[in-house]
Amino acid sequence: xxxxxxxxxxxxxxxIRDISLEVHEQEYFIIIGPTGAGKTVLLETLAGIxxxxxxxxxxxxxxxxTLEPRxxxxxxVYQDYMLFPHLTVRENIAFGLRQRGTPAPEREEAVQKTxxxxxxxxxxSRYPETLSGGEQQRAALARALVLQPRILLLDEPMSALDxxxxxxxxxxxxxxxxxxxxxxxQITHHFEEVHALADRIAIMQEGTVIxxxxxxEVFLHPAxxxxxxxxxxxxxxxxxxxxxxxxxxxxxxxxxxxxASEVTGPVIxxxxxxxxxxxxxxxxSSARNCLAATVVEILxxxxxxRVIMDAGFFLTAALTRESCRDLDLEPGSRxxxxxxxxxVHLIATxxx
Amino acid sequence: MxxxxxxxxxxxxxxxxxxxxxxxxxxxxxxxLIAVPVAYALARYTFPGKRIATLVLTLPLTLPPLVAGIxxxxxxxxxxxxxxxxxxxxxxxFTPLGIVVAQVFVNLPYMxxxxxxxxxxxxxxxxxxxRTLGCTDTxxxxxxxxxxARHGIIAGTVITWSKAMGEFGAVLMLAGxxxxxxxxxxxALYLNISTGDVDLAVAAATILIVIxxxxxxxxxxxxxxxxxx
Lengths: 352, 229
What we know:
Largest sheet of chain B: none
Largest sheet of chain A: 6 strands, mixed
Order of helices and strands of chain B: HHHHHHHHHHHH
Oligomer: heterodimer
Number of helices of chain A: 9
Strand content of chain A: 35-45%
Order of helices and strands of chain A: EEEHEEEHHHEHEHEEHHEEEEEEEEHEE
CATH class of the largest domain in chain A: Alpha Beta
Number of domains of chain B: 1
CATH superfamily of chain B: MetI-like
Largest interface: A-B, 25 and 18 residues
Helix content of chain B: over 70%
CATH architecture of the largest domain in chain A: 3-Layer(aba) Sandwich
Distance between the termini of chain A: 42 Å
Mean pLDDT of chain A: 88
Number of helices of chain B: 12
Distance between the termini of chain B: 36 Å
Radius of gyration of chain A: 24 Å
Strand content of chain B: under 5%
CATH superfamily of the largest domain in chain A: P-loop containing nucleotide triphosphate hydrolases
């Protein structure tokens, strides 16, 4: 549906280059990346705020690269809402309809409907500065949604909100967009949003997209070390990979483990801490890797605990509080770490 | 006090008030018309020669009004430009029109500076959103940027107007100090103090003080948002 072809743009010190990606109909597409990666510039270029230096933007087969923002039918919502302070909430939501010349009665009807959907009907006569963050966010979403945009562009829209409000608004927004068949492209820093919302994601680094895919694909097979680090994948182990049968054997610091991969040579192995099973006795299973290790440290992390072990190299496993208690773990405990060869993903690295 | 009221009733003071009001309002309107687009361009766009443009626009700010007046006098009096304007009926030197020209020249930089900081204080994302909501560039400016900068505009207008009311040096040089012709309030003050008519001078001064206080109050009230100084 929406297709970017080698898009490049520059705004002040920020630039994006050679961005090619495709967003499908009714997709919830999330762009993640560190600050300064050019995520906002990309979104604003999509909206038509900045003219690209090169490349094309194609929507439904039409080249819209040079189309004015007002003709693109894309809604934009920023992190800090950008509600017009000199207008009431009602006037803010009706702003786009006014530009279209919608007659007043229809305008009021549309405003009422959208504000009801977002639960802000009672706030219509207030000015934005008198609203809470969550209410302002709802008003900003209503202002964009009332125009029934083809694509809704969200620039970290929930970042300034507490996690409960954030989850709630996200849920409501998703329901509305499913109903109106709106495609969403969102920037976020929150991984829980990625898992809960995204159909597909793109990771940006230094102005370019380094990987796209479903969250499961990307989290399991990060394209490079940067992606693995940014996605907070618990274990990244440097080693040398050699073929052995149909899989590979990765040697690191005198130890070795197996990985279901075809990558050989110097590698970084990534392994999610959730994929490691910790036991007191050797754990009999189909998993290819079962390594003896010593617990080094136990770190509480919310509802789970992170157990850092030394198996010749360091491994971090995520356990529930219960299993950690049942295993009676403490620094120095002798344990076994078990993980499947298919849980290990290898990224080739060039020798330094 | 009765002396003051009697002085205020004199035709000379009436004329001065009237002339000051008319010239200052005209020059303020001209300042707004020039300053708003110029200030917006300076706040939002980068273009070659922006630094030079800013410098040229700021120069009259530091120039003593007397020097500005001399410069204007020479410009309109001895260049082909000035001659051409005079032939078209825009006689500037020693005329009420000269008062307006002098006021605009001295006050425009202030207006531009105030307006520029008001526009610069508006996050451009407000304008981005407006454009995605269907606004043209002009529509965005009129419906979002201008209303959001309104406090700056009002404060700038009041300052410009009150400075125009009190402008002396540049007006004296370009428009001269002709009694009942180019006699604004400050000129009336100057002429009457020169001839020893202290009462009339005090009357003119009193009006100027009232105007200053009014302007100060307005600016102080609006400064919370506009950050004029």
